Backbone:
């Protein structure tokens, strides 16, 4: 590698993964040259090695442990996907039943959690509540907080996957003033979540199988996405040796942002705003704002750091959207029509085409969730619930990696050089 400042060139090792770009090992660069690398936003930096998820952004391909997302979304459910992400293989029927039973046995949360929850304002954003509740799990489950103990890592993984739906549903019930519904372990993972969300103690609740399947697919599609902002946050947080619940809480906090998981909420709000402005007839006006760099308006649910062709999750989500709306007699849903019109216009517009901006998973997930009856503010909470398995799989992979070190990025310092403090009366 040669340098523009005249420093002598150095040879650096290059490693190949099983697929994807090779990486240059720069770990000894500072020792050899006295220089750091500079890569804000990690545009060219691999911060770890991982065998979990692979994305080919140019092909629009997403693989969990080698399996294409289209096949997983069609042939497997969320429990199989969790097993795959955590342990590296798809379970057989017996293994799936044992794993599901294990998760099911941990769906309840400590009864004391509800008193902690009651400390929040009823109008608190669910992601504020989730950040607090997930972090607070470490105060309730002391027997699984040692990240260096493989048994603790295993049990905390199962607990997190099992308890997140319970916590999200509790946050929702609290916001509308209804009693919490305990988990029902004879239901599927998605079915149990729907029951905790929408049942009341007064009447029997029957899970709609179309909605159950749609929700399960939402979970599968969001389960992992390699080294995105929240996953990298979980890895960095966990690299200090903190407990898994604290590390996952950090991931929840990161996911909340509108450039990341918060985009599904922002996207639906955007569609509702355009609808209120006059709907499809106002799309042109809205697009002009999006293209005007001074407006600060973005087309939410569009664009991705890695996908430069198409987000395969968006295609599957659009399919699910069609199914759910048809099952609920909402084929003419104006927001769905508006979303399709926006997508069509964007895909033909040079601004989007030249920047390789395509719909991402969040473009249609909000419409599906809204049709299911999930309030807009809870969308990102559902994303967090689904992504928890990815976060914990990545965290456990990191801890088990003999090359893992505490994460400690370097900086290009641009502030004041050393100077002396002047006494306050003389400043
Ligand atoms: N609307 C309008 N312009 C956009 C958009 C958009 N949604 N996304 C990117 N651009 C423009 C951007 O202004 C830039 O233009 P220019 O080259 O003229 O300065 C160009 O496209 C490249 O964008 P970038 O900001 O350099 O790309 P990035 O990789 O840093 O950002 C992103 C990726 C997802 C943060 C961004 O596309 C975005 O903010 N999208 C909207 C939010 C969203 O939908 N996020 C969900 C991502 S998928 C789910 C998840 O992983 O959480």
Residues:
């Amino acid at each position: 590698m040669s340098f523009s400042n005249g420093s002598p060139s150095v040879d650096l090792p290059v490693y190949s993964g099983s697929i994807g770009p090779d990486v240059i090992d720069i770990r000894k660069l500072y020792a050899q040259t006295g220089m750091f690398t500079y890569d804000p936003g990690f545009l060219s930096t691999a911060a770890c090695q991982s065998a979990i998820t692979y994305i080919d952004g140019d092909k629009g391909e997403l693989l969990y442990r080698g399996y294409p997302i289209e096949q997983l979304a069609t042939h497997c459910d969320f429990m199989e996907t969790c097993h795959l992400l955590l342990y590296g293989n798809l379970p057989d029927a017996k293994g799936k039943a044992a794993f599901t039973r294990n998760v099911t046995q941990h769906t309840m949360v400590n009864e004391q959690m509800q008193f902690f929850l009651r400390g929040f304002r009823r109008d608190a954003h669910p992601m504020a509540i989730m950040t607090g509740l997930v972090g607070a799990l470490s105060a309730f489950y002391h027997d699984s907080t040692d990240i260096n103990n493989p048994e603790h890592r295993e049990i905390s993984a199962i607990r997190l996957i099992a308890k997140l739906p319970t916590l999200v549903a509790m946050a929702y019930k609290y916001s509308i003033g209804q009693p919490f519904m305990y988990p029902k372990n004879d239901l599927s993972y998605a079915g149990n979540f729907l029951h905790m969300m929408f049942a009341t103690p007064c009447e029997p609740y029957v899970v709609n199988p179309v909605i159950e399947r749609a929700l399960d697919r939402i979970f599968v599609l969001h389960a992992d996405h390699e080294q995105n902002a929240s996953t990298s946050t979980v890895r960095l947080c966990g690299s200090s040796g903190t407990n898994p619940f604290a590390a996952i809480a950090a991931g929840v906090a990161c996911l909340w942002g509108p450039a990341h998981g918060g985009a599904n909420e922002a996207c639906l709000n955007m569609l509702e705003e355009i609808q209120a402005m006059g709907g499809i007839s106002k799309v042109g006006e809205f697009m002009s704002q999006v293209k005007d760099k001074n407006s600060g308006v973005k087309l939410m649910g569009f664009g991705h750091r890695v996908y430069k062709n198409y987000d395969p999750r968006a295609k599957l989500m659009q399919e699910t959207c069609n199914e759910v709306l048809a099952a609920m007699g909402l084929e003419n849903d104006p927001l769905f029509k508006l979303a399709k019109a926006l997508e069509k216009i964007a895909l033909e517009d040079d601004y989007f085409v030249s920047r390789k901006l395509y719909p991402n998973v969040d473009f249609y997930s909000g419409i599906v969730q809204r049709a299911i009856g999930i309030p807009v503010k809870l969308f990102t909470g559902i994303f967090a619930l689904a992504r928890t398995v990815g976060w914990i799989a990545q965290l456990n992979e990191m801890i088990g990696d003999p090359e893992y070190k505490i994460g400690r990025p370097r900086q290009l310092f641009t502030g004041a050089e050393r100077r002396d403090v002047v006494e306050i009366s003389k400043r």
Remarks:
- The longest helix spans residues 150-176.
- The chain is about 50% helix and 5% strand.
- The chain has a mean pLDDT of 94.
- The pocket of carboxymethyl coenzyme *A is lined by residues 225, 228, 259-261, 263, 290, 298-305, 355, 357, 360-362 (CB under 6 Å).
